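[INFO] parsing input record for ATPase/protein kinase
[DEBUG] input buffer:
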Amino acid sequence: MRKLSVEELADRIVAGSRGHIARAITLVESTKPEHRDYAHQLLRLIAPRTGHAFRVGISGVPGAGKSTFIDAMGIKLIDERHHKVAVLAVDPSSSRTGGSILGDRTRMAELASREDAFIRPSPSGGHLGGVARATRESMLVLEAAGYDVILVETVGVGQSEVAVAGMVDTFLMLQVARTGDQLQGIKRGILELADVIAITKADGDNEQAARVAARELSIAMKLITSDTKKRRAPVLTCSSYTGAGLDELWNAVEKHRAELEAEGSLAARRLDQQRDWLWNMVRDELLESLRTSPLVRSVADDVEAQLAEESLSALEGSQIILRAFADALPSLPWAQHTPHSA
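[DEBUG] output buffer:
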């Protein structure tokens, strides 16, 4: 494939070329300096066409059926509400190979076959920060291509939920009815992130149990905060198999977005996310440069050796490493501004 100018690639993305959308996402996922420079130019060009999509994060306990839910909801949004749906999977669990787990395509087989759907797992590159950066930038590419619903699925647990909540407008938490303690294994911190909660698999013999779980979780949500003025996440039930409750669930997502817009807090939320993204990017670039700079690495090895011999204190060693980093600054990739094309 011939190299395209950044302007050509931007035009192909806006025209909806799936091949060029995929190519652009691969570009923004890359950590190579020449690719990062090209990606930054691309993101600047497409920026005016971004920011209008529903950005929805989706997480859930193991067994909640996230992929099955996304498949069913995505099809409904395309067929009945005429949306264009993109799915991105934040997957920090695939660091062994450096790639991404592609099982989502098979679990979302029907959605993946639709012309108005785009499914893309995000490789981790070994750390969650890399996933978050690639996912944020991939969202912008997909918005510029006309996808007006972006679903970001967390494949991992723990910090991945926090990362996803920091890049979406509405965070949807999926739970499943369990025997015994309905709240077992659900961390309070994760519940506090949720804007909408759904009890899945509410069909057949499990329908009544799902309704009971929803009622108990609604009560639990009231106990999380004593502030009666603070918005509480609604708890609904749904079935990806029968489709029951999916319309009501998406209505709750739309209502949450409408509330944010009416309060003027949608723009504020996105500005806060941009600010967090800015400083996360600065931190990640600095740490990566500290880790990979040959000059800094050689000095750090010497400092660590002296530290082991107790001939140098940690404070003195940190100053030596930082001075080496300052000396290495002119040679670091992000300190150079040579334009590239690809």
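[INFO] DSSP finds 14 helices and seven strands in the chain.
[INFO] shutting down worker
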